[in-house]
Every structure is written in C-alpha cells, then in structure tokens.
Specification:
single chain; 1 helix; alpha+beta; 18% helix; 117 residues
C-alpha cells in the first residue's frame, strides 16, 4: 500500500548505515517534524534532480542525476535502485517514471530475495 504525505518533505533518512529504518519528515505548513518508520521509499522530485539528500552516498553524473547501469535501475550501491526523474535526465516524464519505478521495484524484489534482511 502507498500513502501520499502531502505538504511534507524528508529531512533525514534514518538507519544504521546499512538498512533504512525510517524517515524524519517536516510538514511544510506547520514546520513540525515527525518520524515515519519505513524500510524504503519512493521520492517524487519533479524536473530538477533533487538528489542532495543522498549526501554523496550514490554516484551522480555532472548534472546531479543518479547514475544507473544502462537498461536497469541498479545504482553504484548494492541493493539501492533509482527510478524516474532522479536518474532519467532525457525524458523525465510521468510514464517513464512509472516504467522505471516498476524496474526499480522488481530489481529491489530480486535483490531482497537474494539478500535476506
């Protein structure tokens, strides 16, 4: 199931360095923060690659897009997959994001099957 968190931005991805455990969220209207327990997320960013929150944890190209292995959603970090606007600097369209989101989800499913957490 998917929950949309309107008027909300992620402030920090939380975890132990190997596994994501949650996201610190900030309400853009009230300014209040709260923790959302989660083991993964899909981050919609629009037309500018908003990848600064990654803090250099993934390989980016010169324009700030996440580098993926051609034809896949595989990034420079095992078990991390990128989809849509953060890795597609040519098309950046909703249909492309949905298709590559499916690629990322299937890649993540396969990775998790091979690497039990």
């Amino acid at each position: 199931s998917v929950t949309v968190h309107w008027n909300t931005v992620p402030e920090q991805i939380q975890g132990d360095g190997a596994t994501m455990t949650g996201v610190l969220l900030r309400d853009t209207v009230s300014g209040e923060t709260r923790e959302l327990v989660a083991s993964g997320l899909f981050y919609a960013i629009g037309h500018t690659p908003n990848t600064a929150f990654l803090g250099g944890q993934l390989e980016l190209d010169e324009a700030g897009y996440i580098v993926t292995r051609p034809g896949t959603a595989i990034t420079s970090v095992p078990g991390v997959f990128a989809a849509g606007d953060v890795q597609d600097h040519e098309w950046r369209q909703a249909v492309t994001a949905a298709g590559s989101g499916c690629m990322a989800a299937l890649g993540a499913e396969r990775w998790l099957a091979e690497h039990p957490l």
